[in-house]
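Tutorial handout. Part one gives the primary structure; part two gives the three-dimensional structure as tokens.
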Amino acid sequence: MFKPYFRDGGGPPPLSVVVERAARLEETDLLGIVWHGRYAGYLEDGREAFGRRYGLSYLEFRAAGAVLPIRILHLEYLAPLKYLEAFAVEATLHYNEAARLDMEYKIVNQKGETVTRGYSVQMMVGLDGVPLLEAPPLYLNFQKRWREGLL
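Part two.
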């Protein structure tokens, strides 16, 4: 069992989505192993699926006056993925009152083994580039529904 990256201190339980895919040839090196730099894109697949599922896509944030640059990205490589290997990316958002998204990831191979895990922190920044002290109403409404168990 792995130690969680974020502590859930009194907020609602984390929310997750899972995206399934397979490693493509262009993502592998000469040994047929997925190149380490591709994993950031896999996490992005998870973030985008999460945004679509919960009405928090990058375009919806932008329309609400905010963008979400990555502040921290951390990955732990535990085992390689190979060409054509099926895998799933689980993206889990942890509750936080700040104007940021704390997302944890797990990549699991077709045998059910965790091959990569990590986390990202995204800050909410206005379209003018200034960090937001309070999340936009889009996210505040999402948090309210989350706390009320409506998600």
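Part three, for discussion. The chain has one domain: 15-147. The beta strands are 15-22, 66-67, 70-77, 86-94, 100-109, 114-123, 125-126.
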